[in-house]
Amino acid sequence: YFSMKTLTKKILKFFAKLIINKYKPKVIGITGSVGKTSAKEAVFCVLKSTLAVRKSEKNYNNEIGVPLTILGMKSPGKSIFGWVWVFIKALWLCLFRNKKYPKILVLEMAADKRGNLEYLTSIVRPNVSIITAVAPVHLEFFGNLKDVAKEKSTLVKNFLPNGFAILNADDEAVVPMNRLTDAQVIFYGFSEKADL
After folding, report:
1. Separation of alpha carbons 32 and 152, rounded Å
2. Which residues lie closer than 8 Å to 138 by C-beta, 6 or more apart?
3. Torsion of CA 22, 25, 26, 32, to 10 degrees
4. Segment 47-66, tens digit of pLDDT
5. pTM value?
């Protein structure tokens, strides 16, 4: 069974990967059960005054939204002609150089079910991974909190060499994720473990 949505996801992934390889922006990936959007807005707010930066808009944090953010486009919904236009503009971005393409992408990355973050990091691996928190959300797809944490930790395991992870020192499910990487880890929060 091959749906229009599956085809759209494959085409978006193809173009998003090409564009990442061509423009080579620095990528900040943010995930967590809560606080993703606030963290994204805070990071964007700090960077936008001095750098060319783009952030995920609205709920563009899934298999469709993350590639659309990379492409710098909005979803045309169910319009076939709209999607054709998105793909034409994506092809243009690949063939010609857009001098205004951002130097940094701040991407919110959702994990509503197992494998979401594996899929998103197969499109783009962050230079910086931020994990906000692990909470009992979407348990109908995960079963327990340990599995939610395991999915969120994918972002710590799948980022680029020489990158670093920013982890919530106040969340007992996030702290052990520092053992999943050899890269630099920065803890934030109020506990004694926190660097910031």
Report:
1. 6
2. 33, 111, 112, 113, 148
3. -100
4. 999 999 999 998 899 999 99
5. 0.93
Residue 27 pairs in a beta bridge with: 105
Under a CB-based contact definition with an 8 Å cutoff, are residues 165 and 159 in contact? Answer: yes
Pairing state between β 26-31 and 104-108: parallel
Rounded-to-integer distance, Cα 83 and Cα 91, Å: 12
Task: Give the residue from 144, 172, 165, 129 showing the smallest Cα distance to 31.
Answer: 129
Q: Hey, what are 50's tokens?
A: 């001095």
Based on its alpha-carbon atoms, the radius of gyration of the chain, rounded to whole angstroms, reads: 17
pLDDT digits (tens, 9 = 90+) for 9-58: 999 999 999 999 999 999 999 999 899 999 999 999 999 999 999 999 98
Query: Cα(167)–Cα(133) distance, rounded to whole angstroms?
Result: 8
Helix axes 4-23, 80-95, angle to 10 degrees: 20
